[in-house]
Design a protein that fits this description.
By secondary structure, the protein is α+β, with helices and mostly antiparallel strands. It is 23% helix and 25% strand. Helix 1 runs parallel beside helix 5. The model has no long low-confidence stretch (mean pLDDT 90).
Length: 284
């Protein structure tokens, strides 16, 4: 969505910008925590995709059935679309990342126990109760669980996916092995020096989309300077009671990412509220 909007703003009107989306609305994911706790109704954090059409972006609703990166061609609900450039951003699973000591302290300060290396085996209906692979278990009143994901089937069958199980791209330009084909967001795997992949987060997808859009515009018009994704990003860490922390840094730093955790405060919570309002207003 970000890439499509930026391309439409920068390119002459003779160039078509087509966005394929299976959902009728876009949800501002950072606010899902507030939705879960009742602080936001669903309609407050979502916007209809059709609003993008007022800016000249062609929105095609449907499920992508096939991707041919060599031809830059896709099939959407039986309809074939071919372009000069193709951006694949269909999502993927979240990569497991170690929780830093600072984040762990925030969690445990709220009376929440942290149990690393506990893989859930099943959820028993009686109780209800969690059963883990290591034999441990726990009862619960509310379960917020992120199950395992994988690259969408249509991406896995396209020839774009490498040995990692995700799409391999140039870490700075997000170009794939196919000319004119880019991939970004959760569907890609960008290895870091410490042996783990770049975390799958919206802040990175947004920055990547901006880089891809700028480089496509430059390729078409010959204007502007080359853009490069530098691995910088951050996110708010909600701690409740109207407070939030902030983790921010350079994830491309070597030998390990350089990330600073800012302690919880009301100003960070208000900063996230402002970010939510500005984001929804800017893109819709």
């Amino acid at each position: 969505m970000v890439a499509a909007t930026e391309l439409r703003k920068a390119l002459p009107t003779r160039h078509r910008v087509v966005l394929v989306e299976r959902e009728s609305s876009s949800v501002f994911a950072p606010s899902l925590l507030w939705l879960m706790t009742g602080s936001r109704p669903a309609e407050q954090i979502s916007r209809p995709m059709t609003r993008l059409e007022k800016n000249g972006v062609e929105v095609v609703r449907g499920e992508i059935e096939r991707i041919d990166p060599g031809k830059r061609e896709i099939v959407v609900s039986g309809r074939t679309l071919t372009g000069d450039y193709l951006i694949v951003a269909l999502g993927a699973e979240l990569a497991p990342e170690a929780v830093s000591q600072a984040v762990r302290q925030m969690v445990e300060a709220k009376g929440i126990a942290y149990h690393p290396e506990h893989q859930i085996q099943e959820v028993a209906g009686s109780g209800p109760r969690l059963k883990c692979m290591n034999g441990a278990g726990a009862s619960f009143d509310l379960l917020a669980y992120v199950p395992a994901h994988r690259a969408p089937k249509v991406v896995r069958e396209s020839g774009l996916v490498g040995a990692s199980g995700w799409v391999s791209v140039d870490r700075h330009t997000l170009e794939t092995q196919y000319d004119g084909v880019y991939a970004l967001g959760d569907v890609v795997a960008i290895p870091l020096k410490l042996g783990k992949p770049l975390p799958k987060a919206g802040v990175f997808a947004h920055a990547e989309a901006d880089v891809v859009a700028r480089n496509i515009v430059r390729s078409i018009t010959g204007k502007g300077k080359p853009a490069s994704f530098d691995g910088a990003g951050g996110c708010f860490i909600e701690t409740g009671d109207g407070k939030a922390g902030l983790g921010k840094g350079n994830f491309y730093a070597e030998p390990v990412p350089e990330v600073k955790i800012h302690p919880p405060g009301r100003h960070w919570h208000f900063a996230k509220v402002l970010f939510e309002k500005r984001w929804l207003k800017r893109w819709f």
